[in-house]
Amino acid sequence: AHCPPRSRWRPPGDCPARSMGRPGFFGLLLCLLASAPRAWANAGAGSTPPPPHPPQQEEQPERVILRYARALPSAGGSAPDIERHVQGLHQQPGVLKAQALPRLGMAVVTLSSAAHGERLVERLMQDDDAVELAVPDTWVTAFDFGAGGVTAASLERSLRGSGGSVPSEAQCSAHAACRLRGLVGDCCPATDGMMLSCCSARGGPNLFALRSYHGTFLEASADGRVQQVLGDAPPEALFDLQVHGNGTFALRSYFGKYMVVDEQSNVFADRSVAQAWERFNIALNWNGTITLQSHLGTYLSADEGAVVLANRSNATFREQFTLVHFAAQGERLSNDPNISKLWGMKSYEGFDIDAPEAWKIWTGEVGDGITVAVLDTGIDYTHPDLSEQMWVNPLEIPDNGVDDDENGYIDDVHGADFVNDDGDPMDDQMHGTHCAGTIAGVGNNGVGVAGVAWRGVRLMALKFLDSSGAGRTSDAIRAIDYAVAQGAKIASNSWGGGGSNPALQTAIEYAEAAGMLFTAAAGNGGADNDLRPNFPANYNMDNVISVAATTRKGELAHFSCFGSTSVDLAAPGDEILSTIPGGGYGLLSGTSMATPHVSGLAALVWMYRPGLSMRQVRDVLLGSVRRLPALEGKTVTGGLINAKDALESTWAFAPPSPPKHAARGIEFEDVDQGVGSYAGTITIAAAADESDIEYYRVFFVSGAGFQLQALGHKVPATGAAELTMEINASFVPPKYAKYLVVVAGRAAGEMHALLNGIAPHVELKDFALPDSGPSYASWGGDRDLREGWVSGELTVGRAESEHAITSYNVYWSTGLGGVRGPLVGKIPGTGRRAPSCAGKSCGLLGQRRTTDGGWRFARRPYGGSEQATIAVSGPGRLEFDAFDTERYYDALFVDGLRVSGNLSATLPHRLDLPEGLVNIQWQSDESLEATGWSFVLYQSGITTNLTLGSVEVQGRGFEVVPAYEENELASAAVYAAVADNTPQMQAGNHFGVGDGRAVLPLAQLLSPAERGHIRRLAPLDKIPMFENKQVDKKSKRGAPTLDVFEKDKFRALWSAPASPVQRNRVQGAFVVAGLSAAAATGPAARAAVERALRDQMSAAIAGGVVGVVRVTGVAAPELEAAGELAAKVDFEVEPLSKSPALDMDRIEAHLILLGLGLRASASFDVALGAALAALPTSTEVAAVGLPGALRAHFAPPHRMGVRTAIQSAPATQESADTRDRKLRGAP
Description:
1227 residues, 29% strand
């Protein structure tokens, strides 16, 4: 009897009874143990399990699956009708949750108890015409037998049996060493593990090399000498391993001679016939190596030299050899170290799927790619043999805590977890990862194993089985719905046993209509599925392939179910080596292991011939089997899948015939400012000759040159020289995508997207802007006492979120909005992110900032069925000041660590957060709430420093600008003033000579036209250091002017805005719709803007003279995002009259008036448009529709001199002649 695992305790009456009455004491005990939670953890408690709740018959949640009528009474069965109906279900008694699956026309309802579920089924079936079917949920399990895990370096276990009936000791199958060689019949092992009498038959060469423990290979020369060689195995190191009827082996050399050991224990390879002296016994060692025993009883040995002998009576590490499999003619083998252990791909006896012969034809490395959904316990998507093959959700931005594609799962990048209702399908068992490795473990990467399909497969991890291998049918239905919606072509299903469920059948029918192939394990009960059906394998649908398991001897595995009318074919399923979580490899047996062989082969065939339909692929697999006597009458086909024959049988279909001509080029520029997301226009330069081209198609290609998935739609070939494809909706490229390749296609075939082919490509460059900036910047003081040089440390407060910040760029500057000097250095971003919450209970957590810079979260008291996840970057710490939850059932999970129970005795309690992204999950069940918890979260690394050696002063301070790669967000910059510490200042100079002083080559600041006005000044020693000194009436201290020039050089000095400051200027800004940022910043356009502003402001002050000191332009993303051309123009206006205070007021008032957007604003629009329209047509604004296209939207003005956060350096007043020179463009 199977007692399905539950998350909560179940009363004894809930355990299933055997056929002969109620279970006995031990049966009841085992059932209760299976029902108890398998793991627990609570702070301050030991390793004892939590106490069970009192028996409550209605405590365990149950589910009901609803299937709606094909046409709902209201509107023909549309998705909105199903959604509305599901919303109404929340009013039904006992309903905790209801989820609509509109694509399937179904819904899953979770209720508080089985009794409530029963009443809901009765009520809906009697009174609700919209519901066609209401069925209680069922449980299913994974189909595998015992497992053994090994590291990536070596097999850490022997190849032993895995359950079921135990073979007799007289049988080869009872002994690991015999089974390794695939021997059958009687076997009588000696005490030292050697095989004395086994029999087997096989044919064809099996080429191996023998590698010693210290890495050398045994080589047989033409004259018969056997010696050791270093490096790669040469052809002379290959031996054909031949099995004889008595269980011994002969090794035939590259020159056709057999290895022999003479009476002096010397080893040669010079015999033409394999007699007794030329035969060896082979034993399997615990680490996967073998030892060879000669007819003398001595062991073949390879010491640290060139000599090979057989003179030792005991086997040590020197007598251990690794068999390295080599491809024979017509085969292709990968370079993966465990390839020789994959007997299902290639075995000694030949009862394999002929994978090397198929790989000679096709491996999937240059195919279109195909998505295979693995419905299982999840996949370890970080495994080195799987990570490159994982499916990537193109609409989901990884690790941002947002459901970007709005499918109900946050960050479902590689699939989804339907057990825990989240987007992380990590395998917490091993079953799913093992199946994935057989389907598509990366081949020929020098790591671990190889799957049936080496490349091109995108593994979609759909976790619906829990850590015990059990799961709900309703979760399987949701997984199928997800797989179809995401475009999976094959679903691999190594599970079953729950009986038939009409809701599951409906879901599989839906998958069939979508063209999805559904491979299913026949089951491990050893029963006849014709008489005792096993679902879903027994569903009689065109897309279902039911799979039995065979052994390396070509027999039906003793555990495998069979059926002459219900099980379609067989595949290797006994002691299969594949990937397991944690980067390792292990052995499993079961029809679960046979099914992924079929799924992988289906993927290989479909990638080889993408034009085949789902039914054609199924016919190819069933029609190409190798018939075996052991499978006659046991399966529909009576055969074992054969990869080589399957690929060759597709030749009956017309092969693809792609065009011979290709596009001439492709261009793409990203306009999406989000990190990792792209949008824009793809421009295709059409082929010069399109006679054989019907359309063009764009593919993602990895940095390694592998074709990934397609982007957008097919672009018809129209004869135009250029074609465009608009990508208006943002997309996220698949993992590893680095290029876009445009291929030509037609009905007969399509080119492959290859970097080294004739199809052109363009690099995929992400344009993104930071969404925030540093919080502050401060200078720690100058340690260099030389005038004009500084040395010290700049401290920068990192942005709360660095998701879109790769660096902070530090420049010399005159101040924010001023002139920027050269780059000083870059401070790398760390990916830091402020806490963010996702989940239905986030609004209840009371998130707020604390005065000491932390984040407080609290839930006191809490309620039932709460769920929230706080994502934050570490390092950092949590400081708990209250914690009381129902032990085990209500808990916080901090980076996977469960915190539960009452921690009052240990408060305050601290938990350190590791570096990187950390999830803090809160969840409570539906009963027995406690008083709750609260903690303060502190993040480390919120500041960073840039240490400067002695550098020449080239500005009044440092401007720190956030950047994503090459793109900066100037509006989020911060500024830190720099004081040049000099000996005069140390002696008490009250003027602060050099304080805030900045030196830049003037040519860096002016346009080419303006540089023509530069004139040479007198040498420095002829210019007074201080000119027109004025006295600040408040401080009684003189302030230096700016007219200081370095001797014989054209260099200018200027002051950054300061606070407090007495400059008579007004800052303003306006956004211009119809003018690009590039145009606004050009010299000619800038001059036109200055004239329009000067005329407007002069009129405002009744004919007074004004100076427009500064005009800069940047993009206006808020308007450009709506598809409108726009630029933001910043400016400063200065009155030059004798009454500056009055004029300042008038200027400010007029800017406010302009901000109302009425007639004054319209007048300015006309004036600006006319000024720009008057420019020569060769200027950068010639293409702008003028004058009526421009609309200026003014921001509120700002009078300079008011204290602001960005103005912190002392400033000076300029003399009248200095201002006049600036307005004329002269130094």
